[in-house]
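Course assignment 3, question 2. Fill in each field.
Student: A.L.
Task: Predict the tertiary structure for the chain below.
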Amino acid sequence: MVMAHHRQGPFADAVGDLEYPMFVVTAAAGGRRAGCLVGFAAQCSISPPRFMVWLSHRNHTLGVAREAEGLGVHLLSSEDRALAELFGSRCGEEVDKFGAVPWNEGPGGVPLLDDCPRWFVGRVLERFDSGDHDGFLLEPEEAGTGPWSGQLGFQDVQDLEPGHDA
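Answer field:
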């Protein structure tokens, strides 16, 4: 079967109702900080532990992440819609997202969001061009856990107006 190269159609219809967990990915490099809302991410190995995140080619965070040695991956709970809106609807080229939320510098200088207690910092092992997104293969090095009210999923944030097209 040959799939047409367009954004809408049977494939989009087939996967459009799936429930993907949402994350905020943060990066720091060259004196710059960036972060964005991510829906394309998954654990991809148990032993050794590995995790993949994909960042849009149109996203400001991608440029910082390409230079970063590690990325912060924040697991959003159902109570984190405001964080999802900030990091998903605002463009880092236009606003300092980190000026709007409390955060601390984590391992390797990665910004960690104080209001998101479940996170990990992963060392970037490899980068992949995956089409309109770059994939980052991460080796988790440090993690935080905390209260959890259930994941914030794609269906919970699909109404947000993106800061950039995907």
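Instructor remarks: The chain has four helices and nine strands. The chain has one domain: 19-157.
Grade: pending
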